[in-house]
Amino acid sequence: MYIRVKRNKSTYFIQCEPTETALSIKQKLHSIIDQPPSNQQLVLLATNDVLEDSKTLADQKVENDSIVALALRKGILLTLLLIMILSTISPCLSDDDEFEEVFIARPEDFMSSS
């Protein structure tokens, strides 16, 4: 099966099996987006449930062609930039427990009401 992982204007098609865990999907994404699994949060759009790393896709009702939103830990891009520039980072620049808001536009969001 495959799932569609969306973030902003990007969509990643991930081949997987129902017996794989959400952590396995995050590891596959790590090779594509260069963000470690600990900085990723996956949300099943059909239910708005955050996927748990240790549970299988089947256990979490993720099916073939499901759409999953990807959120990254807040402050990661700023942190990476500062690390590159300064080689040190202040711990107060990001809250390690906060993730980006998930918003994936749906076709009906663009339909005008007459």
From TrEMBL:
Residues 1-74 form the Ubiquitin-like domain. The keyword Protease does not apply. Gene3D superfamilies: Phosphatidylinositol 3-kinase Catalytic Subunit, Chain A, domain 1. The keyword Membrane applies. Keywords: Membrane, Transmembrane, Transmembrane helix. It comes from the Eukaryota. The chain crosses the membrane at residues 67-89. Coiled coil: none annotated. This is Ubiquitin-like domain-containing protein. It comes from Urochloa decumbens.
